[in-house]
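User: Let's play a game. I give you a shape written as tokens, and you guess the letters that built it. Ready? Here's round one.
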């Protein structure tokens, strides 16, 4: 089964949270309410610099995805 690069998620236990799930490497879940990130991968120290550089782009892409999805609901 294939998944889209990003998925929206919610949970009634976290009524104010807006979760975006990134399904490709490096997989993570970001809560857009507070920008908390849970990485679903384990990284070596040697990956840290590359991850920091890429993380900013991925978080922006996650926010852009959310904005696009919300715009589509409003149409």
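Assistant: Ready! My guess for every position:
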């Amino acid at each position: 089964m294939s998944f889209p690069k990003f998925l929206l998620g919610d949970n009634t236990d976290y009524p104010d949270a807006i979760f975006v799930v990134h399904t490709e490497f490096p997989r993570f879940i970001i809560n857009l309410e507070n920008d908390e990130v849970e990485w679903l991968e384990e990284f070596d120290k040697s990956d840290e610099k590359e991850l920091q550089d890429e993380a900013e782009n991925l978080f922006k892409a996650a926010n852009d995805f959310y904005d696009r999805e919300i715009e589509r609901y409003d149409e």
